[in-house]
Amino acid sequence: MFFGKTKPHKSDRVPPNQNVTTSFPVLHAGHVPEYEDLSKWNLQIYGLVEQPLLLTLDDLHEMPQSEVSNDIHCVTGWSKLDNVWEGIKTKEIAERVKPLPEARFVILHAEEGWTTNVPLEDFLKDSSLLAHSHNGAPLTPEHGFPLRAVMPHLYFWKSAKWLRGIQFTKENHPGFWEKNGYHLRGNPWKEERYSFD
């Protein structure tokens, strides 16, 4: 359902009950962060891993960079096609920290204590990325500058903006929206919008 009405879709690229938009709507909980000194910014990668890391922006930009084109789908009912993202593949991060065998989930930590949870296999998909740029330009503050997750095969709330931590865990810990009724996984093709879906 999309605002109470079923919306037809004509493309196999668009999940059920989604509307295609050419704009990039801004939706989030909390404030848009302002960074006065990005030299103090870091990304902590920890939990059930052999080699925890604390990375600066320079560290991330020195890693192998990838460009990925995909479609994104918001739980509120919009889809934006043909996005081009640049950043670091999540697989690259995992290869460096070496998750332990018992790690089954990843918790993404963002500014203001915001979190979301994904199964490890979703985090490691070839299409999953830690992005710093969108369509050839650095991310805007509203869309996650300086770094956001991009996991286009899930509803877009799983692609945490303003990323500050990646935690590998054994248990599945619901994040902010999941604790407030959203689905634990969020597969748009199955319309896993809410916990009762």
UniProtKB/TrEMBL annotation:
Pfam families: Oxidored_molyb. Residues 1-22 are annotated as: Disordered. InterPro entries: OxRdtase_Mopterin-bd_dom, OxRdtase_Mopterin-bd_sf. Residues 30-177 form the Oxidoreductase molybdopterin-binding domain. Residues 1-10 have a biased composition (Basic residues). This is Oxidoreductase YuiH.
